[in-house]
Specification:
Elements: H1 14-20, H2 26-38, H3 46-55, H4 59-67, H5 69-78, E1 80-81, E2 84-85, H6 87-91
Amino acid sequence: MSWFCVVNKQSKGAGILEKAYSVLTAEMVSQIRTIRKSGKVNMFDIKSVQLDAYSRGFHDLVTYLKLNAHEYVDLVMTGQANGNNWAKFLSS
């Protein structure tokens, strides 16, 4: 079993996990900024970002990326996600 299989959408309770990881937190944005500043991965290569996040112990971020890939790309492109503007936080 791969660690990418964090959530099995057909399993009992998967909806609870999906709801818990559907909101981007300030901590996750900080973790994304840490990965970006390392320069190790292309931030549009979500699998590589997940691997780097996993190796750093950012497990909530790994799950968030698995469940919210398109929102993550919006964050990288525009600095906005969940109706919040994270651009200033990402650039600091």
